[in-house]
What does this fold into?
Amino acid sequence: MIDVAVITLFPGFFSGPTGVGVVAKAVQTGAMDLSFINLREYGIGVHRQVDDAPFGGGAGMVLMPGPLADAIESRLDTHKVLLTPAGRPLRQSTLDRLAGYEALTLVCGRYEGVDERFVEEFVDEEVSLGDFVLAGGDAAALAVIEGVARLLPSVLGNPRSLDNESFRDGLLEEPQYTRPAVFRGRSVPEVLVSGDHGRIETWREAQRVERTRERRPDLLA
Ligand code: SAM
It folds into this structure.
């Protein structure tokens, strides 16, 4: 069982997506304990303030270290991950590694980001969903939760479906086809209905290499 907690200003962001599919299954089967810590509850004063203007000037607001520190207090013995565009890009290998922890705490930034002293004091790892800027870390945390959930034993119907998927061997997956054999005049590749498993595997491997070369030459490099 992996224990995952999310520190966020918007716990409601997660209610739909974590109630369906592999995340719901992981929670229902006890493979994942998923909880949310509402940062607002740790805000200061009657207005539960969690952010303030940046020292040195500039646009926007920064999440103050105090409320974040109080919110993470009960999770100090977990692996603490801040979602931020300044982090290392999220890879399948990142998810494989994160799925191996007993307990994760995912910290979602908002506004212009998080006071760096909180990061220095509490954060073990910074992870980015990609080279773009979202309004908050919640979508990135959700990506981590779903990516981890599907790796947990007992969650996927057929664990072998993890074996051949994109990135496992450094390649993108080959194109997939199912019924009908002809759709709007387009037939599935002949080899896939040949029954010749050797030819099928050779074709799939060639497709994986070709797709990766075309779309993601950086993976081959
Ligand atoms: N000022 C920041 C910058 O230029 O890097 C962007 C802050 S962003 C508007 C607010 C929050 O969204 C961030 O603190 C982070 O938690 C989250 N966020 C935005 N883009 C992200 C990404 N690509 N990956 C992970 N988290 C992201």
